[in-house]
Design goal:
The chain is 15% helix and 28% strand. By secondary structure, the protein is an alpha+beta fold.
């Protein structure tokens, strides 16, 4: 998350200190044996999976880029609109790819563990606790510490569901309605997975150095390139090399679900994007799931993505698709090699919210060191000596002398000079949290109670761990074995060397040779770096609150929990026997009372755009100049080049989340168009949807609500230039407000809208004379937003699919000759061998393997 130098203009004062509730009763020892702990047993593996789109209102702010805050310029404001769901951040304006809630309920008939994944910036431990409680009540299962919510870290997905003032700078002020909607939908999809439980086969696979050309992801942290952290890893740029995968099959070897793990940031789209998007990590799921039939749940979960950027090619939304395409073959290769088994397994999970108060933080590395912060003393003058004569960190650290934490330590120059705890780098750039709370409070109109120190989120961090097995494993070297698997779920954003340390220490100290790190889980604590890495400074070191020891301290607390709770497989020990590892207590908020507009005209199609309508296909300059979407659908729409646009009057965004589906005429009836594996083509990346209120503001006025959809005639994943020809339309199902409630939930009625039918026809190939013959391409339109070909461009030339062509030569005497050719790549085109100087040749026709065709008039060239 990025901040602004506007911080220099504001300085806050410390707020009243709150009592810490994390002190254990003196009579209780959380490490003592638990003689009353119930026995657990091995059992045959079971799994249930489910998924559903997370539907939060358009207008909810996007998170991850602090520049979207009005206090820093409001990056992402596409117009003057406001939203009741956005406080200080730019309002979202539509949906490119909707976040999908994915649930994996694992069981062995005795113990349960639930992994929930969604495409958001980060989770919130208060929300996880609420979902855990609701699931326990609904199922009668004890799920304490056994529910994980992990995110893909999209910087273009919903915000303001987290009640943590520190991170309001990244996702806007907390909104209780958004939170409650999120909790309700998450609980529903988890219960659907519970209902789906069935006996399964499990297997796990590991790969290393699987993206050697940096086509999928790349190292972004150059600050540590000159430091050697491990003897067997050379100095220089280094990205996390690990790919892990859990394969879940039925007893008949049919796929049920797939979880795959590696680190990649969700930052392909910039802060000026106003469309809800899963970003590049989300398109990993979209592309890879097309290897499987509908109903198979596929989820990427984040590894060490903190210092990793997405790569890909092309531009805009098409770039997101390229990341998924570049990863697809490697993912399938790993998946295909994983053996599975239905043999009985142990399965046990645990969770704790551990203290991360300054004087509780310590790093021992299994007894090889003892790094800690010298106890806080307001009169302490640090020695400003960070390293000893051997270049090692001096373990008694006195430079981080701050009572409530500090941030921005890695940024140079400092955001707020004069408020650092030390003159040594990078401490000299720190800004004490006690100096920042007034700034946060002023930005977001918070009360003194809401910013009282210590802030709840700064006192504890929520961790989770899972051990399951023995299961068959495909190892990095291609060999197979049978072993237990250990998963560590970390708050915040693990980095490359943090993951390396985790894997090595899990093996050395806990005996787990097969460990999987999952980041962005349960809550957000900023970037997780090893102390040696944090002290090098840079952007990553600036986004945490508790200095160089915080991250590895949390790693060690997770190892302690695993040793105390998971190391005795026959007993289900309580992970919090003394009641000291609970999450912090957050302040309560009220539900907003802004009711949606009543819109009886909902369901009215607009055939002509007579007023302003926002569309991401038009630049802001075009929109400001009065450009309007073309709502007149042609009778024929060509593949690739054609874009269908539709607008209608719908419901208030507080209740309406229009589902726009591509439909096809079959046997005289309209049916939903599907992908090759049977998934209905609805929403992104195929169909873009936006919302435009009129007037744009204020939201207190009665507004008319115009919705807009655009669909480019490109296949979902397979055969992008080869959609089946036929008659199509866009079909809309929406909701509008019909109640009188003053707070959510709102009463609604449904409506439908249909576009005019149109005939999908073959696209046109562009043929150009040149070289030893001619070049052929299928050219995307100027407003194209879909990936057409990895070797092409979403708004320019694209080679013929597989470079296959049917070439027909026509002569002046009426003869014609047909030849099948495999062309040669030539930039973004396909080069074909045709002698254009041949006597009597007057015309050349070229068709690609889908029947898209172009004609070159040879006679006119002479």
């Amino acid at each position: 998350m990025r901040t602004s130098l506007l911080l220099l203009a504001l300085v806050g004062c410390p707020s009243p200190q709150k009592d810490d509730d994390s002190v254990a009763p003196a009579a209780c020892d959380p490490t003592a044996p638990q003689p009353d702990a119930p026995a657990i047993r091995q059992g045959a593996p079971q799994a249930g999976v489910a998924e559903a789109v997370l539907q939060l209102p358009v207008g909810t702010p996007l998170s991850g880029y602090t520049g979207r805050c009005d206090c820093f310029g409001g990056d992402g404001d596409v117009d003057a609109r406001d939203s009741v769901y956005a406080e200080k951040f730019a309002s979202s304006a539509g949906i490119q790819t909707a976040p999908v809630l994915k649930a994996f309920w694992l069981s062995n008939g005795d113990q349960d563990f639930v992994i929930l994944k969604v495409a958001l910036i980060y989770p919130f431990d208060g929300l996880v606790k609420e979902v855990e409680a609701r699931l326990s009540e609904a199922t009668g299962r004890n799920l304490k510490g056994k529910v994980v919510l992990t995110t893909n870290h999209s910087h273009s997905s919903y915000g303001d569901f987290s009640n943590t003032p520190t991170y309001f700078l990244g996702s806007d002020k907390f909104n209780l309605e958004v939170y409650e909607r999120f909790v309700e939908q998450t609980t529903e999809v988890a219960l659907a997975a519970w209902t789906d439980l069935q006996p399964v086969k499990l297997g796990v696979g590991f790969a290393r150095d699987w993206d050697p050309q940096d086509r999928v992801y790349r190292d972004r942290r150059g600050d540590n390139d000159g430091t050697q952290f491990f003897d067997d890893i050379p100095v220089g740029g280094h990205k996390t090399p690990y790919l892990s995968m859990i394969r879940i099959d039925t007893l008949d070897d049919a796929p049920v679900g797939v979880l795959f793990d590696f680190g990649i940031h969700g930052t392909s789209l910039d802060g000026d994007n106003a469309m809800v998007s899963t970003d590049a990590p989300g398109l990993l799921d979209t592309v890879f799931e097309e290897r499987f039939g509908a109903g198979v749940v596929v989820a990427h979960i984040q590894g060490a993505g903190g210092d990793i950027s997405p790569a890909g090619s092309d531009q805009g939304y098409a770039n997101l698709e390229t990341v998924g395409e570049y990863a697809d073959d490697a993912l399938w290769e790993l998946y295909s090699g994983i053996p599975t088994s239905a043999d009985p397994i142990w399965l046990e999970g645990a969770g704790r919210s551990v203290s991360q108060l300054r004087d509780d933080i310590r790093v021992t590395r299994g007894g090889t060191t003892d790094m800690y912060y010298v106890p806080y003393d307001e009169d302490l003058v640090p020695d400003n000596i960070v390293y000893d004569e051997n270049g090692d960190i001096i373990p008694a650290i006195d430079e981080f002398n701050v009572p409530y934490g500090a941030a921005f330590c890695g940024e140079d120059p400092a955001y707020l000079p004069g408020f650092a705890p030390s003159e040594a780098f990078p401490y000299v750039n720190c800004v004490e949290l006690s100096k920042m709370v007034g700034i946060i409070g002023a930005f977001f109109d918070l009360t003194a109670e809401q910013i009282a120190l210590p802030l709840p989120e700064a006192t504890k961090a929520t961790l989770a761990a899972l051990r399951f097995g023995p299961v068959p494993i495909l190892d990095e070297d291609g060999s197979t074995t049978t072993d237990d698997v250990f998963m560590g779920f970390f708050v915040g954003e693990p980095t490359t060397y943090f993951e390396e340390q985790f894997k090595r220490r899990a093996a050395a100290e806990l005996g787990y040779e097969h460990a999987i790190l999952v980041g962005y889980s349960q809550d957000e604590e900023g970037y997780l770096l090893l102390p040696e890495d944090w002290l090098l400074g840079g952007y990553e070191a600036s986004i945490n609150q508790w200095g160089p020891l915080q991250a590895e301290h949390l790693m060690e607390r997770l190892f302690v929990m695993a040793d105390e709770v998971l190391s005795t497989p026959e007993v289900a020990e309580d992970s919090d026997p003394c009641g000291v590892y609970h999450i912090p207590t957050y302040l309560e908020w009220e539900l907003p009372t802004a009711a949606p507009d009543v819109t009886p005209e909902a369901g009215t199609r607009l055939d002509v755009a007579t007023e302003y309508i926002y569309s991401p296909l038009y630049s802001l300059d075009e929109l400001e100049a009065g450009a309007l979407p073309n709502l007149t659908l042609p009778a024929e729409l060509p593949r690739v080049q054609g874009v269908a646009e539709l607008a209608w009057l719908g419901g208030d965004a507080g209740v309406d989340w229009p589902l726009v589906t591509l439909q096809r005429m079959e046997g005289g009836s309209w049916v939903d168009a599907t992908t090759a594996t049977g998934r209905v083509i609805t929403g992104g990346p195929d169909i873009l949807v936006t919302h435009t209120p009129d007037p744009l503001l204020p939201t207190a006025d009665v507004q008319q609500h115009t919705w807009y959809a655009a669909w480019q005639a490109v296949g979902h994943v397979d055969d992008r230039a080869g959609l089946p020809l036929g008659t199509y339309r866009l079909h809309v199902e929406g909701q509008h407000y019909v109640g009188s409630e003053t707070t959510w939930p709102w009463s609604t009625a449904s409506y439908t809208v249909d576009s005019e039918p149109f005939e999908l026809v073959a696209g046109s190939l562009t043929l150009t004379a040149g070289g030893a013959g001619l070049t052929a391409s299928i050219d995307a339109p100027a407003r194209g937003y879909r990936l057409v070909d990895l070797a092409g461009h979403s708004q320019g030339q694209n080679p013929l699919p597989e470079h296959l062509a049917t070439v027909t030569r026509e002569y002046e005497d009426g003869r014609s000759e047909v030849e099948e050719q495999v062309g040669v790549a030539s930039g973004r085109t396909t080069s074909l061998a045709v002698d254009l100087a041949e006597v009597g040749l007057v015309r050349v026709r070229v068709a690609d393997l889908h029947g898209n065709e172009g004609v070159l008039d040879v006679a006119s060239l002479r």
